[in-house]
Amino acid sequence: MNHVLSTHLFVAHRLTSALLSRIEQAGIPAVEIFCARQHLDYRDKAQIAELGHWFRDSELKLHSLHSPMYTDEIWGRSGPHAVITITEPVKGLRLQMVDEIKRTLEIAETIPFRYLIQHIGVGGEEFDLRKFDAAFSALEELNLFARQRGVNILLENIPNGLSSAEKLVLFEELTHIGLNYVFDTGHANIGEGVEAAFQLMKGRIRSTHIHDNNGTEDSHLFPLLGAGGTIDWRKTMQLLRPGDGQYPLLLELKERPEFSNPLATVKDVFDRLEELGAEPGPEGAP
Question: Is 161:196 a contact under the CB 8 Å cutoff?
Fold first, then answer.
């Protein structure tokens, strides 16, 4: 499978060409950039231009961007006004958030990328058909803007009442919007379970977010290393393996003090997961 690393691993640090060079030198061929303003300030034209120059001279590929979740630089701690959500029912406020997401899509004009990863709602948000209506209106506008820049929007399964795997399928059935998915193993583990969520989403999966947790907390643990993870990675990799080439193995991890050389640890995780994926399936199935 193709290997991609989300810069979520370094989201507390400013994204620089030096950091990208370290990722490239570690032998990782592609990245997903997490759009948090303390990391990648999508409003900062100078930062975007600097990274654009670097990517043009580099073999490292920009696979995708993760849409911003907050407008501030401190993970939304400045207050509720900083939250970006396409389920905002007030049209004027929702359009402001759509415009914020459009700023990230404009990055494709400087650094081409294939996918924008988008949430429907925020963690823990309850189901409401009116919120589906708001999300549909926002996504119609964003999808047109994205396609004009060669970008496809992928919807992510997250732990809330609007975008579990089951609800993403319902959203498609109700809206026929035609968007594909990014399959998040950690979020599935908190919700329906990895296998159940995968089976619901598999026809539209185009990318992944690979990380572990205890089934309750969205802790973005390194798979197969350290304590606390509960995902069966052998079974998960056997689910993912038949889609080889359809989507990448994309690690979305959280920085942890016990891994002093995180990029070397990332390479170790890729190797271990590939070994599990290469093992025969049940009863010798391919």
Answer: no
